[in-house]
Write a structure and sequence with these properties.
Strand content of chain A: 25-35%
Mean pLDDT of chain A: 94
Oligomer: homodimer
Number of strands of chain A: 13
Low-confidence stretches of chain A: none
Number of domains of chain A: 2
Distance between the termini of chain A: 30 Å
Order of helices and strands of chain A: HHEEEHEHEEEHHEHEHEHEEE
Helix content of chain A: 25-40%
Shape of chain A: globular
CATH architecture of the largest domain in chain A: Alpha-Beta Complex
Chain lengths: 333, 333
């Protein structure tokens, strides 16, 4: 096998065949092994279906790589609908010249993350484009999961009085990728929080089905997620700045660079809107989980100012939190 | 709205939101309109799941564009497992600077093709990368379909004695894209055959469930598809050169450029391996369909030379047909 990816690896011919057989062997499972153009499996009930493309630059960063991100991102999108993620597709767009060793590392990372999340890669696709016509590697994953009975989660379901729970500190992923890309050094290095959250969600749903909204605040950060809830549910959202946890290094980086941590992407955090009577027990359960141990209530849903997110600042005043308007941090996922 | 795509359209913030609302409005349906990160729908039984990324260059070509291709490609992969395609995801990787008008045309084309195929786009994703880090537009579609009772189609199911049916002439798609890209002019212009084949397949399955293998010979062409059948079913495949239809302009282009039409991609053709007793009625049914009217038997499955495809040439000799080894035609899908 060559040590770099060639255009011919995307030809659909012999080299494609060899690449797939060699490269994808760590992902082997009975459905994928059929090597038909489709995966076929038994499934029923309410299904969740989602897709995400990943164009993160650089493809390796502290705390993860594009492969881990591609699995966790899609697993998390499924989990945020309350679904149990089951099957993933994996589509690679490779720039000619990518080293085979890097690609193997990424596939290994996909394998590890899929195994942690309990999902299987069952179908895939590989394309190779000429040097200079893509940037190393883009990955798309789509996913299928099964939504349990009694679960009804949507950004449109928040009601006044509901509590807003955040699973931990924000901004780690965006700052980790940015600092790797730009060669910034902080006293304590920032690592991406990239993680599969389906285990945490299933624990939460085990103690209460009264979870109305659930989302992982990725691109656009916590600000965008809360605005989506406010807009789609036609309610107001009120949060307290002092309750929002930001790691010291992330806060320092944001201050230095003029970013608002509320706008920075996360890849291993979730925001839940929960019925007030169940918020405490959901929170208690989250704190027992490794990806929810720092969970806390950051605010509540209100009747006032529908469609708007208002934050009580540390100085006691209030300010409206908007979605970011421009592009602060391109290619962080 | 700007007339070109900006990085900020991929930010996950306000401009992303506006882009999605404006751009995707032709695709509106109740599942997509929920605007959650997942589509949720009821479905059950044996499901088929597939994915494909499309990196075709140029993004517009005679007979289609990257949008039509992205719908037909995934619809066809589902149909080739015998499934009824139902739901598609749509993920765009856009190069900064792509014109909004071009993107709108492509979305319109996705809409038209999805409507012809009877599928709905239910979930999606949009990423924007800096100018020079992708080539205009890459699209990924994944799809979910439902496999009817009694259907068992796989490249591993061919048996000696089975007939090999081809739905029409080969090589149109690859030559159409190549000639557009390289500015080649032929007396009669070659148009891509890009089309959704699920209607044809469901007519075929209505007359016989004894269809063993089914595949659309895309990248790597008919040669690769037949080799896949031979390898995976551990049988020999024998075809007759004189029976394989190639349009005059495609044959001329192949001769000029030194290509074998058997290696050229198709996007609206299928190859079926059918039980001998049912081949005639399947063929008769295909001929009544607009995408199968030129269907014919091109060969049969044999016990001899397992794993190999052998063609009887027009001169009466035999030659082994291999998968293409290098990359003849990069980025034709």
């Amino acid at each position: 096998m060559e040590d770099k990816i060639l255009l011919a690896h995307g030809s659909g011919g012999k080299l494609s065949h060899d690449l797939i057989v060699e490269l994808l062997s760590p992902l082997a499972n009975p459905i994928l092994n059929r090597m038909d153009d489709c995966a076929v499996f038994e499934m029923g009930g309410r299904l969740a279906f989602t897709t995400d493309s990943f164009v993160v630059k650089p493809i390796f960063f502290p705390g993860g790589d594009i492969g881990k991100l591609a699995v966790c991102g899609t697993v998390n999108d499924l989990a945020m609908s309350g679904a149990v993620p089951k099957y993933l597709s994996l589509a690679l767009i490779i720039e000619e010249g990518l080293s085979f060793a890097e690609l193997k590392n990424i596939i290994q990372s996909i394998c590890t993350s899929a195994s942690e999340a309990g999902v299987r890669i069952v179908t895939g696709d590989t394309k190779v484009v000429n040097q200079g016509q893509a940037d190393k590697l883009f990955i798309n994953t789509a996913g299928v999961g099964s939504v349990p009975e009694g679960v009804d989660i949507s950004a449109a379901n928040a009601r006044p009085g509901d509590k807003i729970i955040l699973s931990g500190n924000i901004g780690d992923h965006g700052i980790a990728v940015l600092s790797q890309r730009e060669g910034l050094r902080f006293e304590s290095p920032v690592r991406s929080d990239c993680a599969p959250l389906n285990g945490l969600v299933s624990e939460m749903l085990a103690v209460s089905k009264n979870i109305r909204c659930l989302r992982d605040p990725t691109r656009g950060g916590l600000a965008t997620t809360l605005n989506d809830f406010a807009l789609q549910s036609k309610v107001g959202v009120r949060i307290a700045e002092t309750s929002i946890p930001v790691a010291k290094a992330v806060a320092a980086a944001c201050e230095l660079l003029g970013f608002d941590p509320l706008h920075i992407a996360n890849e291993g955090k979730l925001v839940a809107v929960a019925a007030p009577q169940d918020a405490d027990k959901i929170l208690a359960k989250m704190k027992q989980h490794k990806y929810g141990k720092d969970a806390l209530v950051i605010g509540e849903v209100v009747k006032e100012h529908p469609g708007r997110v208002v934050m009580q600042t540390r100085f006691g005043s209030s300010r409206i939190i908007d979605m970011p308007v421009g592009e602060l941090l391109p290619r962080i996922c």
